């Protein structure tokens, strides 16, 4: 579909929506214009006192406007998808809510670190990286998966007829991984090995990288590796309809031929995060709004998460946080574990 240049103007007053603030997101840019990145704007958005919006004076005194960052393409009219979410937050919080679009996840991650937005949905890895760099945000809720899953686990997979029963049986064997940027297929399992006192670079006799968990699992079935890393959903359908085992089964047109010999601690789905500088009363109220069932006739936040949300906390991302060094280097780049030598 060709871009609709006037889509944003047709949806709502410009004060409620801001396109990509590219000049503030250039690589190597400053920390923002405000001396205090948690400081709220000087005024509420234009039109915030309209007849359809009645705000709570006590909450607006604490936070005049909640700035929500999302990865959106404004020219394609994607604000219309996010508008029910914005409207539900505004109606539930009774403070003005502004949407700010970012072109991709790295830009959005940098924005919440710098304080250009107050609230942002991130991936588990982007949240973990941001926390290690600034310790300035927390996860509030996470969307349920399409199958109702509330989270996931990294898993180690072996051939169904292999003699291996635990990860400890695989010392000195051949490992198939995804690339170093893969959370489930590389980072989380290898970090778990390190926490158990094993050096991944010497624990396995050989390690080869593949193009994703499915390719790594297929290498096990082809006899080229003894173990591969993948993932499985938690809290969804039984049996699961997603995950590496299901993807391999679809690829083969039958049973996966694999089984799980190790799984990580549970990990939450991609979290909706908020800066700690946002008053606690507002943060708590956001959780209440997003967890409440939608009221008939009112805007629902389910346009962002059709299956609803579940509450999450930092502990739900401990396996991913463990893959990042303490403290940050300020670059905003994800730092993988050291590669394993083949």
How would you explain this protein's 3D organization?
- Strands 6, 7, 8, 9, 10 and 11 form a 6-stranded mixed beta sheet that branches. A 4-stranded antiparallel beta sheet has the order 4-12-5-13, sandwiched between helices. Strands 1-3-2 form a 3-stranded parallel beta sheet.
- The chain folds into 2 domains: 181 residues, Periplasmic binding protein-like II (D-Maltodextrin-Binding Protein, domain 2), CATH 3.40.190; 116 residues, D-Maltodextrin-Binding Protein, domain 2 (3-Layer(aba) Sandwich), CATH 3.40.190.10.
- The longest helix has 15 residues.
- The protein is built from 11 helices and 13 strands.
- With 342 residues, it is of the alpha/beta class.
N to C succession of SSEs: HEHEHEHEHEEEHHEHEHEEEHEH
Structural class: alpha/beta
Please identify which CATH superfamily of the largest domain we are dealing with: Periplasmic binding protein-like II
Level-2 CATH architecture of the largest domain: 3-Layer(aba) Sandwich
The average pLDDT score comes to: 82
Regions with pLDDT < 50 over 5+ consecutive residues? 1-15, 22-51, 327-342
The tally of domains stands at: 2
Shape: elongated
Count of β-strands: 13
What is the CATH C level class of the largest domain, in words?
Alpha Beta
Helix content: 25-40%
Q: What is the CATH topology classification name of the largest domain?
A: D-Maltodextrin-Binding Protein, domain 2
Biased composition (Acidic residues): 21-39
Protein name: Phosphate/phosphite/phosphonate ABC transporter substrate-binding protein
Pfam family, one: Phosphonate-bd
Region (Disordered): 1-54
């Amino acid at each position: 579909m060709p871009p609709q240049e006037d889509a944003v103007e047709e949806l709502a007053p410009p004060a409620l929506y801001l396109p990509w603030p590219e000049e503030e997101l250039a690589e190597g840019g400053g920390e923002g214009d405000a001396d205090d990145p948690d400081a709220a704007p000087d005024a509420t958005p234009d039109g915030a006192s309209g007849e359809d919006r009645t705000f709570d004076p006590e909450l607006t005194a604490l936070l005049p406007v909640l700035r929500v960052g999302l990865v959106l393409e404004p020219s394609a009219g994607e604000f219309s998808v996010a508008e029910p979410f914005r409207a539900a937050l505004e109606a539930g919080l009774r403070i003005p809510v502004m949407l700010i679009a970012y072109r991709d996840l790295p830009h959005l991650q940098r924005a919440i670190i710098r304080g250009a937005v107050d609230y942002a949905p991130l991936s588990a890895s982007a949240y973990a990286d941001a926390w290690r760099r600034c310790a300035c945000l927390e996860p509030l809720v996470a969307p349920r998966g399409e199958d109702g899953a509330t989270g996931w686990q990294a898993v180690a997979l072996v051939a169904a007829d292999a003699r291996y029963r635990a990860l400890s049986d695989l010392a000195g064997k051949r490992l198939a991984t995804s690339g170093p940027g893969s959370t489930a297929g590389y980072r989380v399992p290898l970090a778990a090995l390190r926490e158990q006192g094993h050096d991944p670079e010497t624990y396995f006799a050989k390690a080869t990288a593949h193009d994703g968990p499915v390719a790594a699992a297929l290498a096990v079935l082809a006899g080229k590796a003894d173990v591969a890393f993948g993932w499985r959903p938690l809290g969804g359908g039984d049996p699961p309809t997603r995950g590496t085992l299901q993807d391999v089964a679809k690829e083969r047109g039958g049973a996966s031929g694999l089984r799980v010999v190790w799984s990580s601690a549970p990990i939450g789905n991609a979290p909706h995060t908020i800066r700690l500088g946002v008053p606690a009363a507002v943060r708590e109220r956001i959780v209440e709004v997003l967890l409440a069932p939608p009221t008939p006739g009112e805007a629902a936040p389910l346009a962002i998460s059709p299956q609803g949300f579940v509450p999450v906390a930092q502990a739900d991302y401990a396996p991913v946080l463990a893959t990042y060094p303490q403290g940050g280097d300020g670059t905003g780049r994800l730092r993988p574990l050291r590669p394993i030598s083949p």
